[in-house]
Amino acid sequence: MLKTYLKRLTQEYASQRTKPFTGSDFANFVRHDLAIEAKKRTLFLPFEYKVKASVGQGGWAAVPWLAFFDPIVTETATKGVYIVYLVNPIDETLTLSMNQGTTIVFEQFGTTRGYEVLKRRAQDLNDLVLEYSNKFERTPINLGSDEKLPKGYEAGHAFGRTYAVDQIESDLLDADLEIMFHAYKSLVDRGANTPIDLLREDAGTVDISETRKYILSRRIERAPNVRKKVLAVKPPICEACGLDPKIHYSYEGKLGNIPLDVHHSKPVSQLAEGETARYVVPDDFMLLCPNCHKMIHTLPDPSDLETLKRKITFALPNGVPKNRIF
Fold this sequence. Notes:
The protein folds into two domains: 2-189, Metal Transport, Frataxin, Chain A (2-Layer Sandwich), CATH 3.30.920; 220-322, no CATH class. It is 43% helix and 13% strand. The chain has helices spanning 2-16, 25-40, 103-109, 111-128, 130-133, 148-156, 171-189, 196-203, 208-222, 224-233, 245-248, 290-296, 305-311, and strands at 50-54, 65-69, 81-88, 93-100, 159-164, 261-264, 285-288, 314-315, 321-322. The strands form three sheets. The protein has a five-stranded antiparallel β-sheet with strand order 1-2-3-4-5. The chain has a two-stranded antiparallel ribbon with strand order 6-7. It is elongated and about 70 Å long.
């Protein structure tokens, strides 16, 4: 069904965008039906993808798209790395692409330099997962538009494949998407296009394998969907020292902004690339204050909450140490 929907999008988009945008049944089909059908392709994956399809906001886009986002690195097409189907309405072709968010790059470097930055980073993505990118086309793509965003998609394209209309319903499209999912997971596991020197500095090690595992763990902790789910099931109190922001800081803000960190407690040594699952909420997570979070990462086993608790002492007025805040 996904192939049929993608074929319809590719064949009909040029004519449909000559019609009114507001209230368009075709636009609703793309945003709703196509996105739901694509989401079904991810149901048996060992992690969650956010799926979105777009034909523009407030008016028809030059290039419509269907994208898969790993929340660990991005939930939007404006930043990060993601998988996307891009349509060239003029030639009626469909391109499966490992691509990058353009908006944030343009904001940082400007449009002209931004294109060059995207091209350079695309090559880095290619090189990072050669075992997968070599299975695809690595040549430039053509989306049939001179507008800013389509040109950004062309510059940000790392690898993929372009299909003519008669190829869309072939087995090749299914096979390519499955390989692309594996490539995407490997890119995220390996740090995507973050320079390795920055990864090492953050991880505090020169070992590339350990660095990648550490960075993946930190990215999991910072993923918005993870934090939201953990806060929904755990009391908002540090599990190590007992700090309660509402009592000890008189915090009255939103739960999502509470000054506690979500800690990915699964030992880094177990974050082997290619594992069947990255995390389970809430089993693999703790809520810790920033200090306890920093300290638990210094332990040989970052899941050893009891050892961390034994290390915590607070001096009382009479000089007697006290474990935990209360």
